Amino acid sequence: MTIRRISSGGEFEAKVGYCRAVVAGGFVHVAGTVGQGKDAAEQCRSALSIIEKALAEAGASFADAVRVTYMLPDRHEFEQCWEILADTFGANPPAATMIECGLIDPKYRIEIEVTAVLPE
């Protein structure tokens, strides 16, 4: 099986020892991704933009997403992201899980992890 690694050059990739996405076995596994902004909604948009670029580099898109995990330090902030997520995944919603947990830095309000299937 061929494995391809995709790096976004993010600051934590080198510090922690991971890459933005791995293409393997017909799937694209996108690492947990945080974004920039003052609140969960802005950070959600920013993280989705980073994820979209990784998916595109792998040859996939949000329409190919089969699984998504949302991690937030405060579950009450998740609702401000719902419309953004519904617009992003549209008619092709993936299976999803939301987890309330601590993130790597308190400034981050949401982290998003995506798994997509490569289109045939």
TrEMBL record:
SUPFAM superfamilies: YjgF-like. It holds the Pfam family Ribonuc_L-PSP. It comes from the Bacteria. InterPro entries: RutC-like_sf, YjgF/YER057c/UK114. PANTHER family: BLR7761 PROTEIN (PTHR43857), YJGH FAMILY PROTEIN (PTHR43857:SF1). This is Enamine deaminase RidA. It comes from Ruegeria marisrubri.
